[in-house]
Design brief:
The chain is mainly beta. It has one domain.
Amino acid sequence: MKRFSLVTAALLAVLVTSPASALATIVELGQTKTPIVSPSCPKGVSPSQCFIILTRTTAIQSVSDGVSYPTKVKKAGWIVAFTLGLSNLSTSSTTEHSYLHTLDQAYGGTPQIALTVLKPGPNNRYTVAAQSATFHLIPFLGQVLQEPLSLPPNFTSFTALPVKPGEVVGVSVPTWAPVLSYNLSTTKFAYRQSRMANCKSAAGTQTAQQTVGATTRYLCNYTGTRVEYSATEVLNTPYPKSFVHDTRH
């Protein structure tokens, strides 16, 4: 199930309250020709050897369908929503409950995620430019979730993230989230984590970037894997060429 109605309402709230709203342009950062899907374990792979869980880190998709850094911002605007593919872990409710308990215990809580806007620097360094609130994911497992960044009563206002050209959008997972599709083409898909060592193991400590202004290096690179997310940007609308500024104000 996709919550298109909620996102549509949120976007309309932005557009109808913005000057020259009819000219606003919406861009989906991170969406390439392969649709966002709910991850699943490859056939014949046992749960203990299934690597669809992202844990205690911030992730950036570096290649998707051969497109380099598909969430890179090209024009200034505002991130207003996101799309996220979430595995249901198991078709058996009993087994799923067992997995949830085990993962919650191992990684410090229930599945959660936030959008993180990152400014690239040299040597795979990234600085947090903006970050959304944290979203709890259990109600949406097994879905491709499409959600506004926040949803106050009556859609009167909501929090959007400002973005500038050159920045990229990642996802921060303070606990865990079932958002990885793997066994994909190693030349067409890859992502990076905000870690510098022990890349073959899950993060032993908290490595997710959760503070605006913080900088770290993304040295753990995983080929053949896709983090199932994209971000919805509303581009800034430039002043019309016919605009005349009133110098009295």
